[in-house]
Amino acid sequence: MTLDDLPTPCLVLDLGILKRNLAAMRAALARHPGLVLRPHLKTAKCREVAALAAPDYGPITVSTLAEARHFAEGGWRDQIYAVGITPQKLDAVAALNAQGAEVKVITDDLDAARAIAAHPGPLRALVEVDIGEGRGGVPPGDEALPAIARALGPRLAGVLSHSGHSYNGRSVQEMEAVAEQERAGITAAAARLREAGLEPGIVSLGSSPTALHARDMRGVTEVRAGVYMFGDLFQAQLGTHGMADIAVTVLASVIGRKPERNAVLLDAGALALSKDRSTQAAPKDYGFGLVLDREGRPAFGEAIVLRTHQEHGEARGDGPLPFARLPVGARVRIAPNHTCLTAAAHERYYVVDGGTEVIAVWERVNFW
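Predicted structure:
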């Protein structure tokens, strides 16, 4: 089976690029002896990818109960469910743990911490700390931090932060600065709990850019990162990887040609690509994706998907498009803006390894 035999649109994963990206992250973290990588599988959502990213059933991060269940049943027991927990979900997590999993939850809420502590099932939790992203978490100096940790009592597993604001950086130096800000903040939070007589065994931080560029990880026990596995057009501009290191593309077919506006219509629209516009604020705006040829090469100049409808995408070139090479039915591949959201629209990966032969089909676990 080759890419020509597949239904379009569909998701293509290049195994060689994936392995290269995984190796790059391992090499970056090897500069920090003793640091554990806990890869985030919220983008991959796939056991075959987990086997490469977290071999020998190593620790992982998940973002949904569906992922937690899927990976626990596949053998990955040591998990952090890194989305603030609600009391209504505690039964489901405790049931997984009663069956042999070790799924830890996170919270930044005192009442939720009390509910975790009072639950009869096997549960442990980390306190989420805000180091500058401004999403979930309590600041390291906030009085809520030790109060939440005390409420958890013996179920306190550690502290956790996410440097999502690293995505605002545009240079290695800016990534290094955010990484140090997060390291200093999360280790200060851990030290504060120790001073209060509490023991945060896990000190967890991370994002792909800061994990790759951090110069110092003293006091940190583990790093969580996820998008580095697949890459995308936005991460390429952050310096997480090169443009040739985007492992996931959407295979699409040409369904119309519009020479009068130097455009082609594709059968990959908003549902197949997502409407994420992350590169809009980056130095180079790639619209809804960059069109590559069937082999995944940049063969059409900068042909960018500029408009999407539910099932239509319209790509226009920065120079005259080679319409003779783009008849109706021609296959192209689209590099995504934000691979996490693009992949979420698809049920499986069609795996290639540097060519067009499909060597495997890997299922994803979607939804919640």
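Summary: The longest helix spans residues 172-195.
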